[in-house]
Amino acid sequence: MTISHMNNMNNFLLKLIALTTMIIDHYGAIFEPDVILFRIIGRIAFPIYCFLLVQGFLHTSNIKKYAERLFIFAIISELPFDYAFYGQINYFHQNIFFTLFIGLMTIYFINKYSLGKNYLVPIIIIISFMISSLMYVDYNFIGIIYILAFYFTKNLNKPKNLILTGIILFATNYITGMYLQNYALLSLIPLYFYNNKLGLKNKKMQLLFYIAYPLHLFIFALIKFYY
User: Residue 2's pLDDT is what?
Assistant: First the structure.
């Protein structure tokens, strides 16, 4: 069987994997912090979301609406995020939607303004790093590096791109001391078999993936409060 015949990992399936592993991760972080297995499984989620963000940027017909949707859910998700993880409002850790929003704006500005002006690329990236750090977003500037890695390699079906992305992620984790995050490399397995297809095209179902983030955190916050 050739690789082309094995490429049946569509957008919908990737979102299911990312959502499932993220919820497992958050359950472990909130209720079972001593069980490392939950956190290991959870490392798979974020790289997939970064990859899907880049794919969304490359294929969206309306970048403004895409950015607005991310920002709106970042605002909606903040209180559930704070109370699920900290039991109170925390100004020093913002939810992952803020990270994705900043990442989207970063690749948007790189794509729009760097044509023929390559010197602008590092400036845009540095500004993005500063904003993500000052806002204390989830994964900090490391999240932006992940997004940029997928943006510059784009097609992971090519082994050289897959290897390059893996090296960037591993180096980032190693240099920043986030050794547990090296399990994120497991996400490259399903990403390698991505077939560039949507899968389920129901728009309401797609919206549920956005809603699932604040909803599961809200439920976890309620459970934490009452039990």
Answer: 43
